[in-house]
Amino acid sequence: DVKVTQSSRYLVKRTGEKVFLECVQDMDHENMFWYRQDPGLGLRLIYFSYDVKMKEKGDIPEGYSVSREKKERFSLILESASTNQTSMYLCASRLWGTEAFFGQGTRLTVV
Amino acid sequence: AQSVTQPDIHITVSEGASLELRCNYSYGATPYLFWYVQSPGQGLQLLLKYFSGDTLVQGIKGFEAEFKRSQSSFNLRKPSVHWSDAAEYFCAVGAQGAQKLVFGQGTRLTINP
Hints:
The complex is a heterodimer of chains A (111) and B (113). With 111 residues, chain A is mainly β. Helices cover 0% and strands 58% of the residues of chain A.
């Protein structure tokens, strides 16, 4: 069975901290994504990557960066966490032209 | 640019009743279309997908969806809902050759006993 695993289900961080959200997929997918989910706003794309060390900005990249050093791993970095980054973060991966597979989500609270 | 609209933010139906969730998309060519379901606190699970061919698509858990090009719609249906269908449902559109999917705002489904 295909699997996308996010390192944490719940995180609580302080304002100004550097935060790392990790995502690993075992399907050899080229494309990986980070979405943010907020009530009434659906899923908004933060960043995506189509190959190792390649990345592209999504719709809301401000305040975030990403890293993809290996094909199976895609990290989302909050350089200096702020309270408005409190949200549910979803990682996904897909092959070209197929459906996306999602991780279970990380609920981040910044206090 | 691609966009997806789910006009209903919240729908309530009685257990055993039929269900239709609406999805309208904006895209120039033939899109790839998806419906996902999300249970509380969980990730998204694929219900069904449309790439080409038969415009009526069957999915898991008894769901189906119909692609109507003339109406730019991909509505999700189920003849008889169960209490376990209470969840949030997302419609998504992708383009051939493009990496990313665009999601609608979601429709939250509540089931009355």
